[in-house]
Write the structure tokens for this entry.
Amino acid sequence: MKNAMRSGSKDELKVIRLILSAIKQIEIDKQTILDKDEQILDILNKMVKQRKDSISQFQKGEREDLAQIEIEEIKILNHYLPEDLSESELESIISDAIEESNAVDIKNMGSVMSIIKDKTKGRADMSKVSNIVRERLTK
């Protein structure tokens, strides 16, 4: 935060303050201290997801100016998130999860998704993963 203040990057400073505020809010609500990276990553991923939802709503309402602000915030948030898995890594994890859970149809999707979620730990877009798994299990 200090670096953003020194550099005069108002947008980055705003997003950092939003991140710290979200962390503090959860700590107050749950009366605990978030000390694990996984907990912080969950918050950051939730913030990105919220912004993606906002972007689609703003674009439906023809408010490209507001959508652009959200896009810029996502870029800054992604700076603090680990790099996403490559397509081949993701495909491998999905195949392993389907094999591990002995999934044969869409009824087993929940068990497959829980295995994938544990293995990816915020490094993949779960809606994209869900679509791939659904496609594979309906064949």
About this structure: The chain has a mean pLDDT of 90.
